[in-house]
Amino acid sequence: MRKRGQYLLGLDAGNTVIKAVIFDLEGKQIARSAKDGQSSTPAAGHVERDLSELWSNAKQVIRDCISEAGIDAKDIVGVGCAGHGNGLYLLDKSNHPMLGIQSLDTRAAGTAAKLNAQEDVIEFHKLCLQYPWPSQTPTLLAWIKENRPEQYAQIGTVLLCKDYITFQLTGQLASDVSDMSGCGLLRMPECTYEDRLLELYGLQDAKPMLPRLVDPTEVVGTINEKAAAETGLSIGTPVVGGLFDVVASALGSGVVNNGQASIIAGTWSINQVLSEQPANDTGIFMVSGFGPNRFVNIEASATSAANLEWYVREFVERGAHHDDPFGFCNEKVAQVEPSEDDPIYHPYLYGSGQGAEMRAGFYGLAGWHTEGHMLRALFEGVVFEHRRHIESLQHANLQFNDVILSGGGSRSPIWPQIFADCLGKPMQTAACEETGALGAAIVAGQGAGVFESLEASVDAMTSAKSIFSPNSEMKQHYDRRYAVFSDLTKSMADFWNGQDTNKE
């Protein structure tokens, strides 16, 4: 048994994996457990998960994490959960699970187009600082209402991913303001529910379905008897409201002050700048509020490391030929000398913020190109799409010099340097690999009374790992290739529109 002390448990529920990580009060990782979940695609554009499996996986990783840590569960003083934003997680009127739609789902592309074609569409942005988009929670709910009215009539509560886990741990139905503002359901900057906003989505009857709103650090409830028996946690341990995972990753990487930037190269391309007031700019994808005078201005799309995950799954892991498939990919990229002749890759496997109809593709392949060239093109294409998002933030007068890179892509020995060179800014990587779980633990620490403020909590629990300085010659190289990438994107528009399977 480990020496007694105080610990925090952070949970991170992504689109693919759920993780449980126990930290000490200095942010040192004591133990970690993770488990892959299964997604289903019952129709084109549909990406769903079984909520029973989600909770089963959560229980297992919590039990395994506590066991690995070798601690008394009573020494865990707080629990926080982060989860992927948007998507749609439904309970019926008896609080039984109905449906889990992930944020990679594009079924509601037609619904989003209809909502955006309304004469009063500008009201969306005036109220919530974003426009409807296919994987957005209220847009998906509007799709359910239109296409599955019988199912819609059975809905008791609309939750987000992490909220379902919090409900299972505590029996309390709640969601925090960072998640609900990030999915376009709150009036900004007040971070409150708004009747007129629901009317615009065609969801004027949905307000009773919305859960209680809480701050991320607010204690929602405590571990109940059933959850304690199933997870090994101690009855009565406080559980806080938690965070939208992109905000959690920012905090867990060390980004907490206004004017800092967080780039997350995970399943999604997340690019965000913290500010005291939200940016009111129609070119910004979304704004999430996570406390008084605390806003995260976000440009994001499902165009980042999900591309490498797909490549590894479909091509590298076949036949279990590689013990370290991601290491194999990095080695292949490192063997390639960058050239103007290299192929171009569009990272749009799951569409783009510019349009759900957009698709991925390799362009300019020649007989002398190798797998390393294709992988380097993939790495670059992901960075180019991050750059497009960052330029949108800069156009909204959100300036920054302090940039911290996190997510799976930050663990590559190759990718952070490409980021630094392409963006022309020093790129710091976080010491903690599990920044989402750490961010959840950080707010749990404040909620449990361990830390007086987020700044104090972040300062105590985060540190830097490496700094990658930009190379000016490579910056010029990437500037030229980024221009080609952007021109090619425009040229592909007619083809993508012709291939769109989400048209109604």
Folded structure, characterized:
The chain is an alpha+beta fold. The protein has a single domain (1-504), classed as 2-Layer Sandwich (Nucleotidyltransferase, domain 5), CATH 3.30.420.40. The chain contains 18 helices and 23 strands. The strands form six sheets. It has a seven-stranded mixed sheet, sandwiched between helices. Strands 3-2-1-6-14 form a five-stranded mixed sheet, with helices on both faces. Helix 12 crosses helix 13, helix 13 crosses helix 14 (415-423) and helix 15 packs across helix 16.
State Rg: 22 Å
Top CATH class: Alpha Beta
The CATH topology corresponds to Nucleotidyltransferase, domain 5
Shape: globular
Low-confidence stretches: none
Q: Specify the number of helices.
A: 18
Structural class: alpha+beta
Query: What is the typical, i.e. mean, pLDDT?
Result: 95
CATH architecture label name: 2-Layer Sandwich
What proportion of the residues form beta strands (DSSP E)?
15-25%
CATH superfamily: ATPase, nucleotide binding domain
Largest sheet: 7 strands, mixed
Alpha-carbon distance between the termini?
60 Å
Q: In what order do the strands lie side by side in the largest sheet?
A: 17-18-16-15-21-22-23
What is the share of helical residues? 25-40%
* Number of distinct beta strands: 23
Number of domains: 1
